[in-house]
Structure prediction request, 128 residues.
Amino acid sequence: MGIETIGKLHTIFDTKQISDRFSKREFVVELSDSKYPQTVLFQLTGDRCGLLDQLSVGDQVRVEFSLRGREWRSPSGELKYFNSLDVWKVEPVRPGARAGGREPRDRDVPPPSEMYGTPSRADDDLPF
Prediction:
C-alpha cells in the first residue's frame, strides 16, 4: 500500500544497527492537515537510512511510505499487534506543494494556445 504525505521534519534519530544485515533510522514528521497537528513516527531501513543526511529539522518534506502490520505472541502467550510506517522516499518539498497530491510543475500545464486553441484569422469575426 503506497501512501504519501507532506509535513515538517520534527525529529531525526541516529541510525541503529539492529543486526549484521539490518539497520533502521527513525524520524518524526509533524502533520498539520487538521486543527490538531499530529507528530508521526516513520522508519527507514537498510540503504535508505542515508536519505535524511541532507535534511534538517524544520524542513518541509514529502514522505512516501507503506503501512505495515504484524502480529507477535509474547513468551507468556499474550498476542500483540504492531504497525510501522516504512519509508521508501523522503525529499524536501518545493513551496506550494500539497499533501496527498503532486507538486504542480510547469511542464504539466499546457500553454494557453493548446488549452483553448488559437483562433485563425478566418475564425475571427470581430470588426476591429
Notes: Confidence is low (pLDDT under 50) at residues 100-120.
